[in-house]
């Protein structure tokens, strides 16, 4: 019950934070088989939360080990089914711990449960699928070594954002058709099995999210797509435009964003009504965000906590200076305006 309550609270928070969240392909997720979800990774913890609240399973999550450490956090992470994975940057001597991690994942899959793992191995805001690491194949192979008949299904997940570092942004989650690992796994030829599985997953991911392939022309193509006003929530159309419509000699175009007077008025009202929360974010939290990819995560976390504190203070203030109805009405009006601004007035 506590897990479900926490999931619902985060679900509501995500939907209040984003202008839109679109979810496609839930019918592709097997219900009674072990599943390894493999999403692309752009937006740090937001990626994790979007999959967690929308996948209709109760998955475990493989997460970078450096976020673990404190006793309280470790208890919380264990409760929400997070498992640390160790990388070279964590120290070569830590890599040996992954053997126990793979055994743990194998036991999870053997019970018919689900795991979320990011096959790119890192996050980046660029709209492209980066080369996949072979770490996720080691999880699969360990599970099949222990349970050779296990019918593991890999579900590629495409995560798409209009602009992940901006507020408000919109998101679209695409669950692809499952890949039966038994069809690609040959215990007598593990190197080729790794290649075949990685190629199959990468191919699916490149259809489920925007994939700007030519790295040397990334900025030009990204600018071109913005001038065409494409919807980055529709990767099929965006990728088709990249393949068929991008002129190789297209001039560089500076990013511009048009705002109507009406948009500016609503934004000014939003900033005025919520200035304590926004000021705290801009002066104290935003400067301490370690990487651009973490902006969305930190902003969402602060919005989640900051607005609860702000609403509580307003409620107490009006309760003592006016009455209960004024207190309830003020908080309700401000919450409704904020949600309306994010959903309808900010675009």
Describe the structure.
Strands 1, 2, 3, 4, 5, 6, 7 and 8 form an 8-stranded mixed β-sheet that branches. This protein has helices spanning about 1-15, 45-55, 70-80, 100-110, 135-145, 190-210, 220-225, 235-245, 260-275, 275-285, 295-320, 325-345, and strands at about 20-25, 35-40, 60-65, 80-85, 115, 155-160, 170-175, 180. It is globular and about 75 Å long. The longest helix is centred in the C-terminal third of the chain and has 27 residues, at about 295-320. Helix content is about 50%, strand content about 10%. Helix 4 (about 100-110) crosses helix 5 (about 135-145) and helix 10 (about 275-285) runs antiparallel to helix 11 (about 295-320). Helix 3 links the parallel strand 3 (about 60-65) and strand 4 (about 80-85). It has 3 domains: about 1-210, Glycerol-3-phosphate (1)-acyltransferase; about 215-255, no CATH class; about 260-345, no CATH class. It is built from 12 helices and 8 strands. With about 350 residues, it is of the alpha/beta class. Mean pLDDT is about 90; it is low at about 255-260.
Question: Could you provide a short overview of the structure?
Answer:
It is an enzyme of class 2 (transferase). The protein has 347 residues and is α/β, with parallel strands linked by helices.
